[in-house]
Prior knowledge:
Blueprint: E1 3-7, H1 11-22, E2 26-30, H2 34-43, E3 59-62, E4 73-76, H3 83-91, E5 99-102, H4 115-122, E6 127-132, H5 137-141, E7 146-151, H6 155-165, E8 170-175, H7 178-200, H8 205-225, H9 230-233, H10 236-245, H11 252-261, H12 266-270, H13 278-292, H14 298-307, H15 313-321
Parallel strand pairs: 1-2, 1-4, 2-3, 4-5, 5-6, 7-8
Antiparallel strand pairs: 6-7
Helix pairs in contact: 3-4, 7-8, 7-10, 7-11, 7-13, 7-14, 8-10, 13-14, 14-15
Amino acid sequence: xxxxxxxxxxxxxxxxxxxxxxxxxxxxxxxxxxxxxxxxxxxxxxxxxxxxxxxxxxxxxxxxxxxxxxxxxxxxxxxxxxxxxxxxxxxxxxxxxxxxxxxxxxxxxxxxxxxxxxxxxxxxxxxxxxxxxxxxxxxxxxxxxxxxxxxxxxxxxxxxxxxxxxxxxxxxxxxxxxxxxxxxxxxxxxxxxxxxxxxxxxxxxxxxxxxxxxxxxxxxxxxxxxxxxxxxxxxxxxxxxxxxxxxxxxxxxxxxxxxxxxxxxxxxxxxxxxxxxxxxxxxxxxxxxxxxxxxxxxxxxxxxxxxxxxxxxxxxxxxxxxxxxxxxx
Length: 329
């Protein structure tokens, strides 16, 4: 692999473009905003989504998504709720077997599909893979050490992709379990909102540790019910990602929960934000998916109810704390 396409010019897409350039690849990044493409060409910067990072000369940008189809692999980094539309625009002309690495984390609202299912329906010619793990775009773009999971049913493909994009500070671990990798990344966004709410209410570190631990139990139950493996979500793409997003205001989902915990409405917490907090759309989809599979997810359900305006933060916390006592496992 010598040339990589990036579908999505947000913070994470731009950071991954920088990773691929550091790995010695030529990179073509698609963004729908002409100002982003212009700034990259003119200033080697994406000030709209990832300010302060100077991009490698190997990163080029385009507003024409079909330009990406001449690359050796495609990293799909558009938000989860827009992935289907973005892929549908490319599907008819997509070369058969083109590797498409799914980098967005979420469950599609309405269909309740994971991103691999969306890809299979929208662009069936693609060879699917999933990239997920504890990674903040700003840190990755600056070259700080990061480890992620890169999963594909075809392990040879996973190894080839990992080899292509690995750098001394960006370390992909390969896996065959795409469902586990993407389920962990989708569910943790909802749980990060819960941890933000607890932080905003000043509930303390003990409460945060309890939320992360019991949230991880919910994440594992649902991921396994969907066909993933418990061992996968105990790694970088599940537990690792959960710990990171639940522990820092750099997380869009955690910071949104923080604002709500401090008394802001959902509309006020989202106002003026360019980047997407995937947990907002994923919360109802995750709880519906859990109900469909007979999986109990009380923390995710509390987040859904708060975001929907069905329950205030105080009663939601009280309801979680008053649940019947039971064995931990």
